[in-house]
Write a structure and sequence with these properties.
The structure holds three protein chains of three kinds.
Chain A lengths: L10 H5 L16 E7 L5 E7 L1 H4 L4 E6 L28 E2 L5 E7 L2 H8 L3 E6 L6 H4 L8 E2 L3 E2 L2 E3 L2 H6 L3 E9 L11 E7 L2 E6 L4 H12 L6 E4 L15 H13 L3 E4 L2 H7 L6 E9 L5 E12 L13 H4 L4 E10 L13 H19 L3 H7 L17 H12 L12 E2 L2 E13 L5 E7 L5 E4 L9 H13 L6 E4 L16 H25 L15 E3 L2 E4 L2 E4 H8 L4 E7 L7 H4 L3 E13 L5 E11 L6 H20 L30 E6 L23 H13 L10 H4 L9
Parallel strand pairs in A: 1-14, 12-13, 16-17, 21-22, 28-29
Antiparallel strand pairs in A: 1-5, 2-4, 2-6, 3-5, 7-8, 9-17, 10-15, 11-12, 11-14, 15-16, 18-19, 19-27, 20-21, 20-26, 23-24, 24-25, 27-28
Helix pairs in contact in A: 10-18, 13-14, 17-18
Chain B lengths: L19 E7 L2 E7 L5 H8 L18 E4 L2 E4 L12 E3 L1 H4 L7 H8 L9 H16 L19 H7 L10 H16 L1
Parallel strand pairs in B: 1-5
Antiparallel strand pairs in B: 1-2, 3-4, 3-5
Helix pairs in contact in B: 3-6
Chain C lengths: L4 E3 L4 H7 L5 E4 L5 H6 L7 E4 L8 E3 L5 E4 L4 H6 L1 H6 L1 H8 L4 H6 L2 H5 L51 H7 L3 E5 L5 E5 H4 L18 E7 L6 E7 L10 E10 L2 E10 L6 E2 L1 H7 L6 H11 L11 H19 L2
Classes of the chains: A alpha+beta, B alpha+beta, C alpha+beta.
């Protein structure tokens, strides 16, 4: 089954509306409805809060503010990962960012709760907030490390000397905006109290993190919390952790002893779940006339919330991308009184490659070398900073295959030279690279007496295809047809994992599933080969083949159901594990990444500078592919995120109030159908034997890496206008367009 | 910005207006409800009838996840009140087809992987069904070169323009278009 | 959303009578009103549902014009064969707005009355003279990329978001109104909307409880009609700038031209200055440029929206060139 384009196992449920998301569970009965009230200042202190009219409004059961919220566990930085830490809410009258929760109103109906929420009267002493990144960029500090455990700074060779003596130098600054994950399912939580226990239906990516975070915030025994999340309507980083909706629903449900559900409004999602911080990136490239890089520097400054530091690893993959003897990367942070920075799909690479791959295009232009060729000339033999070998690097193959399939040779070598009617047409490309992470996962596989396999893990399926690929892995692992495999995910009583995030979910859970299957097979073989009643008795288990519901050794075979019936009337189960990469020597001995190359053709309206994608192709190398259908979908989805990052997405801060001005989906633009023409993704055959036993790596974020700059470079090729301030909106291109004369 | 003058007839606006009785015809079944006049059709479907296949993605007509068919036309159910739909014929994703008998559009979405997380999917499918009916009726779109022409050639560009009211953050767009195209082709053969 | 009572009157007269109640408001498609009610920007205490009134028809008029019922859905108007053939600019404008779902619900009258998309109007924590008279305009020194370049005031720089109304403006539409005293009047669309001045909360000349019953289109003007909408994404977005034009060119000379802009002002912006600069002039880019300059003579940027002035000029030039070419 592995490698087959199996339709999604959960597809029929999703297309019929039968897949149930967090807010939609009715098992607990009729819940109460909670609505969050947010601060209307960006910095300051609550001086007065009047909840009287809200409390007396029809149907209202509770109004919670900092005055009556229970004491909660504090965020504990000794817990290694943010998403496992406590997330206390309504703890003080201090306001740290616009929209911060100041009250929760719980009522019998949603209409009543929403109306009463508008009655909570809050007065503030507004403080002077720091909201303007550009104004404070110079006050940046160096964090201890970057997100993901990457070093803050690195230096190899002598950058200054290398750069100053290079034949050709590019020294440019690129800026990227605040961006948000914006999954379509609103962040939501339904909590049912049962005795001292809490049953928590929550939209989250990592069950174990949600459990730990709720337990430490509410200061209750984790064993009393049951998380249930069979379907998650997208996450893209914003559901790695839980947020105010979950904590407040849990507190309210406990206090009222009734089920309570809370969903953020779309507007509140702009304020309460974290964001990709804005960045200013200086990229310096020094090269010889032959195009070989001698010096690469990537200096990044980004915004961070002052209380919850987040240093996006924006320069991290620059360390592994191209060869050059002299190298420098730095990360700096400017504290601003804005919502916390957080992981948004492809943290680091998404903004970082916008800058570096634009700069490479500028270098290609300065040198008069084809951009594909320039990258090929700078292909390193080993990881250029760590010096360790690459596990399985096929960037050059991606570049060559992509150029061939796309028809790159038709690219106009002179910018602004191709015109079709009202459209200025241009081609652009960029490389893709993403570090492959491995995290902890445990999976239990149970072969039932009826010959059905049940795969159990607290892993989630956030649209990634977990149900489907684990079906395939288990089917192969036990020699069963996929219909005989059942996958159970997203429940905290199941074996724990790092869930979905960082593109690690598929490899972590598949590898653990595979190992669990191996362990189940061994148990079966031990009994079968030792059972005088079995035709396999006395045969060598090492020769065993599991297929079509039977075990065959040499010429003998026996149905699994018979082995089970005789020796394991209650079934057989075993667990498989994937270790954290820090405990796996391969991850220190090898540089393990996924790769790709993006090619884009854009049209720019010669009169209005409207930019429209015309076609796009990505060619990727990701090791072994478990399911080409779901893999392609994820890669295409990532590429389209790149379209948004290049051309549309930007959360705009009001520099006076610290509020996001455009906080709805009419104003925060993301691509719609009409923006997306022919987009395709091709994956090279591969197998990365250093990554894991299945030879596979994650694909959830690779698609976005480099997709944006391919489009930016195409805009330059179409118009001759280089925009370094993302997104590339029409007013940035318009002044560079030719006069209208006909 | 509470406006004390806004409440009419001396009634405090925080009071709940009396519940209104409304009979909705949902998926061929008459459902009698007592709803707050403020209840959107979307919330009536989800919170009262427990038909949660219709999704709330923005509650402001900016994403399309809540699309249902009312009297055969696709509509954002978040921006209309339940009380306004007495006797209207409402079809939700649950009414299009079920696990035992998928609607052709539902099957096509599965086959072409026209979704990932699945949250926008019911809205995409209802919208696609309504959209093909609009094309069949000869309605023009922004992608139609000559709006005066009574016949619409259902190009991919037409599908994309007409489906633009349904946002998919997983960005399954190319697969969604392929799924719709396949259904449209099968329907015209 | 604040609590309200709801009624569905049987006919137009009953509707205007019902709307005379204090705090009452008409609801038709609801696509804008409910959006605003959920955010506590609009807060009627009584809703008068006019969506089922017998005002959905599109009727031929003896003079060759059309009467469009106020309750006709945007999609029905756009798809009407008479509109498509005789008033294509209106059909084009309608299908360039919103989404298929919204057009199925939004009514003609409601579209005319839709409120601005200024983000500060939408943010009840921000000052906004339109939402809360006297509270100031947060957009003037704030984020104002989508705001007005023409006809704005110190009190308000919001724009009217409709595409349909821009096309109707260039078609010299008349709006038929029914008052609570049952009097009927007709207002030219250019007189229907107000500029913000010191009272940006007053957007039209509608009297309290007065209801739009229909829009009357005079016989189509001679010449080629075109609607061109410029925006960041390819669909499902309000216009940064739009142009509705009707150009009748004879040989290489423009006999007559009508021009209106969307996305640039508090109301659909008819440019008589551009029209004067076109009439009787050669159909050349130089003429279009002169017309564009005339149209934008009094345009003022607010910072982030400065680009709209040149964008509007260029959009007008291209639209005129295309219209003239094939007229």
């Amino acid at each position: 089954m592995i490698g087959q384009p199996l339709d999604r196992i959960d597809g029929p449920l999703k297309v019929t509306g039968q897949a149930i998301y967090a807010y939609e569970h009715w098992e607990p009965g009729q819940p109460l409805y909670g609505v969050i009230v947010g601060a209307t200042v960006g910095k300051g202190r609550i001086t007065r809060i009047d909840t009287d009219s809200a409390e007396h409004a029809p149907g209202v059961r509770m109004v919670m503010t900092h005055r009556n919220a229970p004491e909660q566990g504090a965020r504990d930085e000794s817990v290694p990962m943010e998403y496992w830490r406590a997330q206390p809410v309504l703890t003080s009258p201090d306001i740290h960012y616009h929209g911060e929760p100041v009250a929760l109103v719980v009522a019998e109906t949603l209409e009543q709760a929403r109306a009463a929420a508008a009655l909570v009267h809050v007065e503030y002493a507004a403080g002077r907030g720091r909201f303007d990144f550009a104004a404070y960029e110079d006050e940046a500090y160096a964090p201890k490390e970057a997100n993901g455990g990457f070093p803050t700074d690195t230096e190899v060779g002598d950058f200054d000397t290398g750069f100053s003596t290079a034949d050709v130098r590019i020294d440019q600054r690129y800026t990227t905006p605040y961006e948000l994950s914006m999954p379509m399912e609103l962040h939501a939580c339904l909590v049912q109290p049962r005795g001292e226990d809490l049953i928590v239906y929550v939209s989250c990516q990592i069950v174990d993190a949600a459990l730990a975070s709720i337990a430490s915030t509410l200061r209750i025994d984790p064993a009393r919390i049951y998380i249930i999340t069979p379907f998650v309507g997208g996450g893209f980083g914003s559901k790695l952790g839980i947020h105010a909706e979950t904590i407040l629903a849990a507190i309210a449900a406990r206090a009222l002893r009734e089920p309570v559900k809370v969903a953020l409004t779309r507007q509140q999602i702009f304020q309460l779940v974290g964001m990709r911080p804005t960045s200013s990136q200086r990229v310096r490239l020094g090269a010889g006339r032959d195009g070989r890089l001698v010096a690469v520097a990537h200096d990044v400054t980004m915004a961070t919330n002052p209380d919850i530091e987040f240093a996006e690893q924006t320069a991290a993959t620059t360390r592994s991308l191209y060869a050059a003897p002299h190298r420098l990367t730095t990360h700096r942070l400017t504290p601003l009184d804005l919502p916390r920075g957080a992981d948004v799909r492809a943290p680091g690479e998404a903004p970082g490659l916008l800058a570096v791959e634009s700069a490479m295009d500028e270098l290609a232009d300065a040198l008069g070398i084809d951009p594909v060729e320039l990258r090929i000339r700078n292909e390193p033999a080993v990881d250029p900073e760590s010096g360790v070998p690459f596990s399985d690097r096929h960037l050059v193959e991606c570049l060559r295959e992509g150029a061939r399939r796309f028809g790159w040779e038709h690219r106009p070598t002179t910018p602004a030279s191709m015109r079709e009617g009202r459209w200025l047409v241009g081609y652009g490309m960029a490389a893709a690279i993403r570090k492959h992470f491995q995290g902890q996962a445990t999976v239990r596989v149970r072969l039932e007496a009826d010959g059905t396999a049940v795969v159990q893990t607290d892993m989630t399926d956030i649209g990634t295809g977990t149900y489907t690929i684990l079906t395939q892995v288990a089917a192969d692992g036990l020699g069963l047809p996929p219909e005989r495999v059942r996958i159970e995910l997203g429940r905290s009583e199941l074996p724990t994992s790092w869930g979905s995030g960082g593109s690690w979910g598929a490899a972590n859970s598949s590898t653990a599933t595979h190992r669990a299957c191996v362990a189940v097979r061994e148990k079966l073989l031990v009994t079968a080969c030792g059972d005088t009643g079995s035709p396999l008795h006395g045969l060598d288990p090492a020769e065993a083949v599991f297929a079509e519901g039977s075990v065959r050794i040499g010429g003998a075979d026996e149905a699994l159901s018979e082995i089970l019936a005789r020796n394991h009337p209650d079934g057989v189960q075993a667990e498989g594990e994937t270790r954290f990469m820090g405990d796996d020597p391969n991850y220190a001995a090898y540089s393990i990444h996924t790769y790709g190359a993006h090619f884009a053709e854009v049209g720019v309206d010669a009169d209005t500078a409207e930019i429209r994608l015309r076609r796009m192709l990505g060619v990727f190398s990701v090791g072994r592919v478990l399911n080409p259908k779901t893999t392609r979908s994820q890669l295409i989805g990532g590429m389209i995120w790149g379209v948004g990052a290049a051309l549309q997405e930007e959360a705009v801060v009001d520099l006076r109030s610290g509020a996001f001005v455009n906080r709805d989906l009419a104003q925060y633009l993301m691509p719609v159908h009409a923006d997306i023409p022919d987009v395709d993704a091709v994956v090279l055959d591969g197998y990365d034997d250093k990554a894991n036993v299945l030879g596979m790596k994650g694909v959830g974020e690779l698609g976005i890496c480099g997709a944006g700059p391919a489009i930016a470079n195409a805009v330059f090729n179409a118009t001759g206008v280089r925009v370094r301030d993302f997104p590339i909106t029409l007013e940035k291109v318009l002044p560079g367009l030719p006069l209208m004369d006909t | 910005m509470n406006d004390p003058d806004a409440g009419g007839a001396g009634r405090s606006w925080a009071e709940t207006a009396p519940l209104s009785a409304v009979a909705l015809r949902v998926n061929d079944e008459v459902r009698r409800l007592e709803v707050d006049p403020r209840t959107s059709l979307l919330d009536a479907l989800r919170e009262h009838l427990h038909l949660s296949g219709t999704k709330k993605g923005c509650d402001h007509g900016q994403c399309g996840a809540c699309t249902v068919l009312i009297n055969g036309r696709r509509v954002n159910s978040c921006l209309t009140l339940a009380v306004m739909h007495e006797d209207d014929e409402i079809v939700t994703i649950e009414g299009l087809g079920d696990l035992d008998s998928l609607h052709a559009m539902q099957r096509s979405f599965v086959e072409r992987d026209g979704f990932q997380c699945g949250y926008c999917t019911p809205g995409q499918i209802c919208s696609a069904v309504g959209m093909l009916a609009e094309v069949g009726a000869g309605w023009p779109s922004h992608a139609t070169a000559d709006v005066a022409s009574p016949r619409i050639a259902l190009t991919d560009e037409e599908i994309r323009e007409r489906m633009s009211g349904n946002i998919c953050r997983c960005a399954a767009y190319p697969n969604i278009v392929a799924a719709i195209r396949a259904v449209a082709k099968a329907g015209t053969q | 959303m604040r609590s309200f009572t709801y009624e569905r009157p049987a006919d137009a007269r009953a509707a205007v009578a019902a709307a005379s109640r204090s705090g009452a408001k008409f609801i038709s498609g609801g696509t804008n009103l409910l959006d605003l009610m959920k955010l506590d920007i609009e807060h009627p205490s009584h809703l008068v549902d006019i969506s089922r009134l017998a005002l959905r028809d599109i009727d031929e008029l003896p003079d060759g014009g059309l009467r469009i019922g106020a309750q006709a859905a945007n999609s029905d108007v756009a798809a009407d064969a008479r509109v498509r053939t005789r008033y294509p600019v209106l059909s084009q404008a309608l299908v360039s707005g919103a989404s298929g779902q919204l057009r199925n619900k939004a009514s003609t009258g409601g579209n005319l009355l839709q409120r601005t998309r200024c983000p500060y109007f939408y943010d009840t924590a921000a000052g906004c003279n339109k939402r809360d008279p006297g509270s100031g305009c947060s957009a003037i020194d704030g984020s104002n990329r989508i705001h007005a370049i023409l006809g704005a005031s110190d009190a308000c720089i919001a724009t009217h978001p409709s595409d349909m109304a821009v096309a109707m403006t260039v078609l010299d539409a008349q709006i038929e109104l029914l008052d609570a005293d049952e009097s009927v009047r007709r207002v030219a669309i250019t007189d229907f909307y107000r500029l913000p001045g010191d009272t940006p909360h007053l957007e039209t000349v509608l009297r309290p409880a007065e209801m739009i019953t229909s829009v009357v289109l005079p016989p189509p003007p001679p010449g080629r009609q075109l609607y061109r909408k410029v925006r960041d994404r390819a669909s499902y977005e309000f216009a940064l700038v739009s142009v509705a034009a009707v150009v009748s060119a004879d040989q290489a000379t423009i006999a007559q031209a009508r021009v209106a802009f969307g996305g640039v002002a508090h109301k659909p912006w008819r440019s008589v200055e551009a029209e004067a600069a076109l009439t009787g002039r050669p159909a050349t880019m130089a003429t279009y440029r002169a017309a564009a300059d005339a149209a934008m003579r009094d345009a003022v940027g607010q910072g982030h929206n400065d680009f709209k002035i040149e964008l509007a000029r260029r959009t007008l030039c291209r639209t005129l060139a295309q219209a003239a070419q094939s007229s």
